[in-house]
Amino acid sequence: MRRAEVTVLSILLAALSGLLFWAAGGPWPGIIAAVVVLALGVLFAWFLRRRFGAWRYQERDEDLLVARGVMVQRLSVVPYGRMQFVEVTAGPIERLFQLSTVKLHTAAAASDARIPGLERAEAARLRDRLTELGESMAAGI
Amino acid sequence: MTDAPQKATGPSEGWCRLHPLTPIARIGRLVPAFVLLLLVSTVHSKAENGTAETDYLIAFTLISAVYGYIHWVVTRWRFEGDTLRIESGLLRKDSRRLPLGRIQAVDIVRPFLARLLGVSELRIRLAGSGGTDGKLAYLSEAQAAELRLVLLAGHVDITAATSSNTGLPMASVDTARLLASVFLSLVTIIVVGTVSALIILDQFEPRTAAGATAFLAVYLLSAAGVIWRRLSGQYAFIAVEAPEGVRIQRGLLQTISETVPYGRIQAVRQVEPLLWRPFGWCRLEVDVAGATGRNQRGEGTSVVRKALLPVGSQQDSWHLLARLLGGPDPERTAPPGRARFKAPLSFHFLSAGHDATHAVCVTGRINRATTWVPLEKSQSIRRVQGPLQRPLGLATVHVDVAGKRARAEFRDRAIDEADQLVAELTALSRAARSGSGREAPMAMLDAAPSGWYPDPAGRHEQRYWHEGRWTGHVANSGRRSADAPTPSP
C-alpha cells in the first residue's frame, strides 16, 4: 500500500509554515522554522510510512483479518456475518491519488476494521465481496 | 388459557381511550419544573414584590391541564388485526402501528402521581429499535396488566403470559442493604466529604466557605441527584424469573417493571467495588441489545446497561449468573508473572478463561469487574500489543460484543498464548454462532422472524411462529384463538 501522499502533504506543510515565519520575522527565523518543520515532517512521514507498511489485511473463508500498528500492534478478526455495513470513503488527498478507505462496521464500536489507502478498483472489489459475504452469512446481533 | 387472545380480539371493533384521570396524572410529570419555578419565584419575591410569578404558575398549571385534556381527547388506540394502532396529536397527527409479532418487551411504569391515582403507563418496545416505540399513558392498573398480557401473548408462549405474575423470585434487595450500598459508593463519600469540609471551613473562614459553597452548589446538587436516583430507582428491587427473561420490578416513587430477555444479553458484569468487598457485596449488570437495524452508522445498535442486581451477596449473584449463563463457569487462569511490571496494581486480580460458549475475565483493582461474554454474541476478536507489552512478550486479547463499552479482555497474556487464543476464540465463536441453532430460542433474530404464517397443521388459517417454533396461537380470518402447538418443523 503506497502512501507517498503523506510525505507530499508534510513537505507542503513544512514549506507553508516556513513561508509564514518568513513573513512574520524576516529571512533567518523563516529558514530555521522551515528546516525544523521539514525535519519534523520527514520524521512524521517516516513514522507514517512504517505505520502504513504495517497495515495489512487478509480475506479468509469466514472472517477478515486486519492487522496494523508499529508502536501498538493490533490484529482484528471480524467475521463477515457480523458486518453491519461497509463504508468506502475517499478524502480529497486520497482522491488525488486514486485511493480510498474501506471500513467495516460491526455492532461493536471497538471492532476497528479499517483499511486505508486501497486502490480504487481494489476498494470496489473488496466492498462488493464483503457485502456479498456479509449477506450470505448474516448472523444478526 | 384461551383468555388472553379473546381479549385481544375484543376491543378491535372500536377505539379505546386512555384512563379519564390521564390529564391529572400527566401534570405529575411537570412537578419538578413547578418546584423549580416555585423556588425561583420565592427567591425573586424576596427581592421584589413578585406575586406575578404565582399567577404565572397558576396559568401554567391551567394551560398544561387543558393541554392534557386535549391530549386525552385525541389519543386513542385499538387492535387492527395483528397490529396495535395508537393515534394521538391534535395539530401534529401521530398514528403508529405496532406489529404484535415484533413486540420485544412491555414495561409498566408508574410515576408517583399516577400511582396515587391508580393508573400506570405502558411502554412498548419493538424488536429492531432501541427506545420506546409505543406509549400508552395512562391506563388503569388492571387494564395495563391485562393489555400487557395480551400484547405478550402474541409474542411469548401463552404459558409465559399467564405465568407472568407467578414467576419465581430470583433476587431481591432489602432497603437496609440498598441504603448501605449507596452510602458506600464513591459519589456519596465525595459529597459527604465535601460538605463536612465546607462545614469545617465555615468555622474558620466563613467568607471563603460561602464562596466555595456557591461554587460547589451545582455539583453537590447534581451529585445528590445521582444518589437520590440510585436510591429511588433501585428501591424495592425484585428480579423474577419469567420464561422470556428476567423480569425486574423496582422503584420508590415511580415503579418500573421491565424485562431483560435472555436472548439479548450481550455481556454480564459482576462488579465488586473496593468499599463493598468487606461485606462480600457485588453488583450485577447486563448489557442488553436494543436495535438490530442497519442504521447509517454502526453505533445505531443501542446497547443498554441494566442493573440486574443493584447490590447483593455473592450467593445471590451466583444464583442469577447460573441462570443467565446456563452452564458451569469457565475455568480462569492468571496471566504470566511478568505482567506484574505492566499492571502492578491490578495484576493481583487479573485472570481470564473461556470454554466453548463463554469467555470470562476479571479486570480492575478498585472496581473489580468480572465480565462474561457469550461467544455466540462476539462481534470481533482483537489482539492488541502496546509498546509496554512488547518487551515483556505480552498481548491483550479482546472479545468485542455489540455496544461501546462491552467487551471481555484477556489482559496481558503471554504472546504465544494470545495468538492461540485468537485462533481458538475465532473458531469457537464461529461454532457458537452456527451451532446456536436456528431453533434455539436465544437466536431469535437468526431464525425466521416471528409472525403469523400459514398453519402447518392445516387446522387453522394462520399460526404464530415465535423464536423458531410454532406457538399455540392461531387465527382464522383475523380472529385469534388458542390451539395446541404443533411440533416444530
Topology:
The complex is a heterodimer of chains A (141) and B (489).
Chain A: H1 4-25, H2 27-53, E1 56-59, E2 63-68, E3 73-79, E4 83-89, H3 92-96, E5 99-106, E6 113-119, H4 120-137
Antiparallel strand pairs in A: 1-2, 2-3, 4-5, 5-6
Chain B: H1 3-9, E1 16-17, H2 22-27, H3 31-47, H4 52-74, E2 76-80, E3 83-88, E4 94-99, E5 103-110, H5 112-117, E6 119-126, E7 134-140, H6 141-153, H7 158-162, E8 169-172, H8 175-183, H9 186-204, H10 206-234, E9 238-242, E10 245-250, E11 255-261, E12 265-273, E13 281-289, E14 303-313, H11 314-325, E15 351-354, E16 358-363, E17 367-374, E18 380-385, H12 389-392, E19 394-400, E20 407-414, H13 415-435, E21 451-454, E22 462-466, E23 469-476, E24 479-482
Antiparallel strand pairs in B: 1-2, 2-3, 3-4, 5-6, 5-11, 6-7, 8-9, 9-10, 10-11, 12-13, 12-17, 13-14, 15-16, 16-17, 18-19, 19-20, 21-22, 22-23, 23-24
Give structural attributes.
heterodimer, A: 141 residues, alpha+beta, three-stranded antiparallel beta sheet, 4 helices, B: 489 residues, seven-stranded antiparallel beta sheet, six-stranded antiparallel beta sheet, disordered N terminus
- Total helices of chain B: the number is 13
SS class of chain A = alpha+beta
Secondary-structure-based class of chain B equals alpha+beta
Helix content of chain A: 40-55%
Walkthrough of the structure:
The complex is a heterodimer of chains A (141) and B (489). With 141 residues, chain A is of the alpha+beta class. In chain A, 51% of the residues lie in helices and 28% in strands. Chain A contains four helices and six strands, in the order H-H-E-E-E-E-H-E-E-H. Chain A has helices at residues 4-25, 27-53, 92-96, 120-137; strands at residues 56-59, 63-68, 73-79, 83-89, 99-106, 113-119. In chain A, the strands form two sheets. A three-stranded antiparallel sheet of chain A has the order 1-2-3. In chain A, strands 4-5-6 form a three-stranded antiparallel sheet. In chain A, helix 1 (4-25) runs antiparallel to helix 2. The two termini of chain A are 33 Å apart. The model of chain A has no long low-confidence stretch (mean pLDDT 78). Chain B is α+β, with helices and mostly antiparallel strands. Chain B has 13 helices and 24 strands. Chain B has helices spanning 3-9, 22-27, 31-47, 52-74, 112-117, 141-153, 158-162, 175-183, 186-204, 206-234, 314-325, 389-392, 415-435; strands at 16-17, 76-80, 83-88, 94-99, 103-110, 119-126, 134-140, 169-172, 238-242, 245-250, 255-261, 265-273, 281-289, 303-313, 351-354, 358-363, 367-374, 380-385, 394-400, 407-414, 451-454, 462-466, 469-476, 479-482. In chain B, the strands form five sheets. Chain B has a seven-stranded antiparallel sheet, with helices on both faces. In chain B, a hairpin with a 2-residue loop joins strand 23 (469-476) and strand 24. The longest helix of chain B is centred in the middle third of the chain and has 29 residues, at 206-234. Residues 1-12, 156-164, 291-300 and 437-448 of chain B have low confidence and may be disordered. Classes of the chains: A alpha+beta (141), B alpha+beta (489). At the A-B interface, strand 3 of A face strand 18, strand 19 and helix 13 of B. Strand 3 of chain A pairs antiparallel with strand 18 (380-385) of chain B, so a sheet runs across the interface.
